[in-house]
């Protein structure tokens, strides 16, 4: 089997859906012109596994989440979600580019929370949270509203349902964004530097919500973060990115206490000195 034939790799590895990882990247490459941001990356994420993704700016961390969410197209490679190819589909036993219907269905298993909240400013917290379930999932307004109220309560904002984003703190807006993503009932949650725009106190609010989600709900989570303490405490595995590749990964205790790769050691020293 050729290493540059990720479709063949995927076909050989995918068995029963229950046996497959929740997310699998095979030979994933992303280029912008001459710049390679992800370089033939392979990564498997188990069901309900919590993975922290760290590394210097420009190392490909956020791009990994964006290609998984299909916000950026792949240059090469394959992505599989819940045992199914994401940007491809099987037709007569052959993998072909995914139809819009297939792409939407598989992508609906993924929720993403962004650094900049991305709430609709003209909608209340409740309206922001019910919009996608009504428009995309076809839920009735009554059912979507009940789901949204439960999720806003989950993130500690049951009393802010009728507030607009401008009436909420940054931490509260980010918690609405988390509730909005959860309203689609995803199996995979992506968090892209969700605390980087917040001051330390508001940062704690959001991290507490993520802790609760991780402990109380069956969710696979990939989190790009600069919060080393949180990564050490929360993650099942830490992946260190450099120049579009994962150059070291492992359980948090081993990763932070005894990093093996010289580049990882340099990065962690720089982070420690910056605190």
UniProtKB/TrEMBL annotation:
Location of this chain's protein in the cell: Cell membrane
Keyword Cell membrane attached: yes
Gene3D superfamilies linked to this entry: P-loop containing nucleotide triphosphate hydrolases
Membrane topology: Peripheral membrane protein
CDD domains (alphabetical): ABC_HisP_GlnQ (cd03262)
UniProt KW keywords: Amino-acid transport, ATP-binding, Cell inner membrane, Cell membrane, Membrane, Nucleotide-binding, Transport
Source organism, top-level taxon: Bacteria
Chief place where the protein resides: membrane
Record Pfam families: ABC_tran
GO molecular function terms attached to this record: ATP binding
SMART domains, per database record: AAA (SM00382)
Domain ABC transporter: 23-268
Record's keyword annotation contains RNA-binding: no
NCBIfam families (UniProt xref): ectoine_ehuA
Protein family (similarity comment): Belongs to the ABC transporter superfamily.
Family matches, as PANTHER family: AMINO ACID IMPORT ATP-BINDING PROTEIN, GLUTAMATE_ASPARTATE IMPORT ATP-BINDING PROTEIN GLTL
Name the record gives this protein: Glutamine transport ATP-binding protein GlnQ
Taxonomic lineage of the native organism: Bacteria, Pseudomonadati, Pseudomonadota, Betaproteobacteria, Burkholderiales
């Amino acid at each position: 089997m050729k290493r540059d034939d990720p479709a063949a790799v995927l076909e050989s590895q995918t068995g029963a859906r229950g046996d497959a990882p929740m997310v699998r990247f095979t030979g994933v490459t992303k280029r912008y012109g001459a710049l390679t941001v992800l370089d033939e990356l392979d990564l498997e994420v188990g069901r309900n596994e919590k993975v922290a993704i760290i590394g210097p700016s420009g190392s490909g961390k956020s791009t990994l989440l964006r290609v998984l969410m299909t916000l950026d197209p792949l240059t090469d490679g394959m992505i599989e979600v819940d045992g199914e190819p994401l940007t491809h589909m099987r037709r007569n036993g052959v993998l072909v580019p995914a139809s819009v219907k297939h792409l939407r269905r598989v992508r609906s298993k993924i929720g993403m929370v962004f650094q900049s909240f991305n709430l609709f400013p003209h909608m209340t917290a409740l309206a922001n949270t019910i919009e996608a379930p009504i428009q995309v999932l076809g839920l009735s307004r009554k059912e979507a509203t009940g789901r949204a109220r439960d999720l806003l309560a989950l993130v500690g904002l049951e009393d802010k349902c009728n507030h607009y984003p401008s009436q909420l703190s940054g931490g509260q807006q980010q918690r609405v964004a988390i509730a909005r993503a959860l309203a689609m009932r995803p199996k995979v949650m992506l968090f892209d530097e969700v605390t980087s725009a917040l001051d330390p106190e508001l940062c704690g609010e959001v991290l507490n919500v993520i802790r609760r989600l991780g402990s109380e709900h069956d969710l696979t989570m990939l989190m790009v973060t600069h919060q080393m303490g949180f990564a050490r405490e929360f993650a099942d595995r830490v992946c260190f990115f450099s120049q579009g590749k994962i150059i070291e990964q492992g359980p948090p205790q081993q990763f932070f206490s005894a990093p093996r790769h010289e580049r990882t050691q340099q990065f962690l020293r720089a982070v420690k000195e910056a605190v």
